[in-house]
Design brief:
By secondary structure, the protein is α/β, with parallel strands linked by helices. The protein is built from seven helices and nine strands; from the N terminus they run H-E-E-H-E-H-E-H-E-E-H-E-H-E-E-H. The strands form two sheets. The protein has a seven-stranded mixed beta sheet with strand order 5-4-3-6-7-9-8, sandwiched between helices. Helix 2 packs parallel to helix 3.
């Protein structure tokens, strides 16, 4: 990748919660999946000023987490920023970024998502501003750096039932570990990651990973849609820059 990457080996995942909470989240996760697989027809939506067409087999992404990350992007993205939307899904976050900057890259590993996002980019008049790539993570971005990386990662750690469920589940958080290990090598000196997560996931483990992979962390958006769910957008920066170990300072 043009530079030596220091990788931290993932330890065996152990949930940061009791068994009762784990059982509850398994039940919650099954409900999410059953809702998604029932979508058999093409649906059209308007969300955050974006016209979206959603096809069966693509994670619809119409809920609190999607909107909260979109809200953060609307506040933070600047005209000259280079933005990467990793796991673009329907393409909504890439579209929001492309309304501000002309340098957006969108990535997804799901072929159906790639086709769906491409149609939505055209539908919203931003296709010329977005480089759309079918890829798993950073594998096709060697040497590329971004001012902002946005991601709405799979929340739970269960084994995915199929490629659609892989948008919700990352078995033992293998992908989340890989993302946090590699992402800082794709940030500009003052770059930041915008990552949305919730307590419908193992948020204690996420916070452990922030320390393990040496990120400076700030909550930039938060929403509580009901009495028990909490969604947050975390802004992450490479701690080496924030602590002065490299040239550059955090904005």
């Amino acid at each position: 990748m043009g530079e030596k990457m220091c990788k931290t080996k993932q330890k065996k995942y152990v949930p940061f919660m009791d068994e009762g909470r784990q059982k509850y989240l398994r039940k919650w996760d099954l409900g999410v999946y059953e809702t998604l697989v029932q979508i058999k027809d093409v649906k059209d939506y308007e969300l955050m000023g974006v016209s979206l067409r959603v096809y069966p087999g693509v994670h619809a992404g119409l809920w609190t987490d999607t909107q909260l990350l979109g809200k953060a992007l609307n506040k933070i993205v600047k005209k000259d920023d280079k933005v990467l939307d990793l796991g673009t899904g329907t393409g909504i976050h890439a579209i929001l970024a492309a309304k501000v900057t002309e340098n957006v890259t969108a990535i997804d590993f799901n072929e159906k998502s790639i086709k769906n996002a491409k149609e939505n980019f055209v539908k919203n008049g931003v296709s010329e501003k977005i480089n759309l790539i079918e890829s798993d993570g950073f594998s096709k971005l060697q040497g590329k750096k971004f001012d902002i990386i946005s991601i709405n990662p799979p929340f739970r750690w269960f084994k995915p039932k199929d490629i659609l469920d892989a948008a919700s589940n990352d078995e033992n958080y293998v992908f989340l570990n890989r993302f946090l290990s590699e992402a800082k090598h794709h940030l500009t000196d003052n770059g930041r990651i915008l990552l949305v997560f919730a307590n419908t996931a193992d948020i204690g483990y996420l916070q452990y990973l922030f320390g393990l992979y040496r990120y400076e962390v700030k909550v930039v958006e938060e929403e509580k849609p009901d009495e028990w769910r909490i969604y947050r957008v975390f802004e992450l920066r490479d701690m080496r820059y924030c602590k002065g170990e490299k040239s550059g300072t955090c904005r």
